[in-house]
Design goal:
This protein is mainly alpha-helical. The protein contains 2 helices and no strands.
Length: 69
């Protein structure tokens, strides 16, 4: 369910009712950069997102960093 007021133009991961992870289902690591071609995360970041002990603060900071890749 998408929050009221969210449109195609302003939709982002943070617009989701349930904050999950930045995966878009295109999972392939680029051997040169080490980044996933779908979500731009490294393998270490992918595993950290899956870890239930990872804080929301870290996830928020990582999400901002991913926008610059």
């Amino acid at each position: 369910m998408i929050k009221e007021g969210v449109t195609e133009q302003n939709f982002s991961m943070s617009s989701h009712e349930i904050y999950r992870f930045p995966c878009i289902g295109v999972c392939s690591i680029d051997l040169n950069s080490g980044y996933c071609l779908g979500c731009s995360r490294t393998l270490e970041e992918i595993y950290k997102w899956e870890d239930p002990d990872t804080s929301m603060e870290w996830k928020s900071k990582n999400e901002q960093e991913l926008k610059t890749r």
